[in-house]
Amino acid sequence: EMGDELLAKLARDATFFVRAHESNEMQPTLAISHAGVSVVMAQAQPRREKRWSEWASGKVLCLLDPLDGVYNYLAQQRCNLDDTWEGKIYRVLAGNPAKHAGDI
Fold it and tell me: Could you list the residue ranges that cross the membrane (predicted)?
């Protein structure tokens, strides 16, 4: 059992901060620390912004140029529409999704 003096000392000495951890993970992590107790949370649902290759319409556009699509899937295991004509069409139709998970 904790006494009032100890609780008052903990409240006086406590620090509260929020820190976003940058890592190579797809989901950003948020850490909240308070009075020696630490909580780490991650996003439960994926963000709306995705890489070009994760959009179904992006995959379809990648197939419009068969040679480029085959090269991208063989060399990179994903479709890369960034500066191709398919990517320009995609940006006009669907907007410009983030290239990395951390971009907003």
Answer: none
